[in-house]
Amino acid sequence: MRKYLFSGAVLGSILGAIGVVKATISGPRDWRLLLMWVSWACSLAIAIGTVADDEKRRELTE
């Protein structure tokens, strides 16, 4: 679990959620807000997948 929390990609994605939350609170509720959340979820999924892939590759080389 620690490898996910301290990964730069995952941290960047989590910090990116701050902007999405601010836009949700203060911005208009339209289709662009939904796209922001979908985009953020995709970036988080890609970051988690990258960490998992790196870990699998590390295990295979050892």
Task: Count the domains.
Answer: 1
**Could you give a short account of the major beta sheet?**
none
The mean pLDDT is 90
Radius of gyration: 15 Å
Report how far apart the termini are.
20 Å
Beta strand count: 0
Transmembrane segments: 33-52
Keywords: Membrane, Transmembrane, Transmembrane helix
Give structural attributes.
mainly alpha, elongated
Describe the structure in your own words.
The protein is an all-alpha fold and 62 residues long. Helices cover 87% and strands 0% of the residues. It is elongated and about 50 Å long. It has one domain (2-61).
Topology record:
Layout: H1 2-5, H2 8-26, H3 31-61
How would you summarize what this structure contains?
This protein has three helices and no strands. With about 60 residues, the chain is mainly alpha-helical.
